[in-house]
Specification:
By secondary structure, the protein is α/β, with parallel strands linked by helices. The protein is 40% helix and 15% strand. A 6-stranded parallel beta sheet has the order 2-1-3-4-5-11, sandwiched between helices. Strands 7-6-8-9 form a 4-stranded parallel beta sheet, sandwiched between helices. The chain is globular and about 65 Å long. The N and C termini lie far apart (61 Å). The C terminus is likely disordered.
Length: 367
């Protein structure tokens, strides 16, 4: 049997090409260390799956007067997706966690980490007086998952999913969701279906793009590489990138499935600036069912996944881990999706009349 090696500060120093003292300063957030050196040390620590000594499994934990506390880690590593534009769905996660935590007798605390490494977050958990942890994994890499998992506390990750990582995940079923969106567009009579992807690296974005290609083939539809557009994940960034693409003169598909609603907002704004009508000229479907989509003109068709249900299930899984008498196998749960059909994707097969006019909105009106 192979014994897993526990890496030390000296191992990190060797991998990063610095002294052990420098590694210690970086991991403890001290000293005047250059950003380049700091990044090199943190990358080496993550690559080696280093876990702070105090946080290693089996370490004595401090006594606490609040044994029934669950900590939710709202982690924004780069802030491209965990930001004010996505605050609604994060609030839904918290609502679901809070209701189930209260029902099971736990207190729920929310701690935000912006721009911090997984190592730094793990350090704060080492002596935290909590029974278990739920981490928002939206912007987390696989190495980050492994580092936090090594803290030794019961932990569940939401809004991300890794098949081959032995950790507990509760996430949306991206495969099911994308299939529903594409089946809807085909049913609406669209022949050329495009995809608005994002070059921002998140697991869910990547899973949706992979699912798009798989299910286009499954539904007998062909993918035109020219109909795949990659944009930033903020509404301003998606708008700017789409304007740049339209200025270059790209050939548009008949309709587009957008990676999420926020991207759809920016995408639609750019189309309208170029006189392209929704849905008469181009149909659009989003993902997330954010409130703004229902008030748009026309209202945005989208995919809805119950974030409250995901939060609820995360607490349920965590409670089982906290109270288990022996180590448990990883639990990976995917929550199904529901298509919310509105007006933005009406196609040639839709018997209902299209509104007489879809107002063209320019930059000033949408700012």
């Amino acid at each position: 049997m192979t014994v897993k090696k526990s890496f030390t500060i000296r191992d990190i120093a060797s991998a990063a090409g610095v002294s052990p003292a420098t590694v210690s300063l970086v991991l403890n957030g001290k000293g005047e260390i250059s950003e380049l050196t700091r990044a090199r040390v943190l990358e080496a620590a993550a690559r080696l799956h280093y876990v702070p000594r105090l946080a290693r499994p089996g370490t004595a934990r401090p006594q606490t007067d609040a044994p029934g506390t669950i900590r939710f880690l709202k982690i924004a590593r780069h802030g491209h997706t965990v930001n004010r534009d996505h605050s609604v769905f994060i609030s839904d996660y918290i609502d679901g966690m809070s209701a189930e935590a209260t029902r099971r007798g736990y207190a729920l605390e929310v701690v935000s980490h912006e721009g911090q490494s997984a190592i730094a977050i793990a350090e704060t958990l080492a002596l935290a007086p909590v029974s278990g942890v739920i981490a928002l994994g939206t912007e987390m890499a696989e190495s980050d998952i492994r580092v936090l998992q090594g803290v030794g506390r019961p932990i569940v990750f939401i809004d991300t999913f890794f098949d081959v990582v032995e950790a507990n995940f509760v996430n949306m079923n991206n495969e099911d969701a994308v299939h529903q969106a594409l089946a809807r567009l085909r049913q609406q009579g669209f022949g050329r279906i495009g995809f608005v992807a994002s070059h921002v690296d998140t697991t869910n974005f990547r899973l949706r793009q992979q699912a798009f290609h798989r299910h286009m083939g499954r539904l007998g539809l062909s993918v035109d590489p020219g109909h795949i557009l990659s944009v930033e994940s903020t509404p301003e960034g998606a708008y700017a990138d789409t304007v740049a693409a339209l200025t270059r003169g790209i050939a548009l598909a008949d309709c587009y499935f957008c990676t999420n609603d926020v991207i759809a907002y920016g995408f639609i704004k750019a189309l309208r600036e170029f006189g392209i009508r929704i849905p008469e000229d181009v149909g659009v479907i989003g993902f997330d069912n954010l409130p703004l989509g229902a008030t748009m003109d026309p209202a945005l068709s989208t995919i809805d996944v119950s974030k409250r249900k995901i939060g609820n299930l995360a607490v349920t899984v965590l409670d089982d881990l906290i109270n288990a008498a022996e180590p448990q196998p990883p639990v990976k749960i995917l929550v199904g999706a529901r298509l919310v059909a509105r007006l933005s994707d009406r196609g040639p097969a839709d018997p209902r009349p299209v509104p007489q006019a879809v107002r063209r909105r320019g930059i000033a009106e949408n700012a």
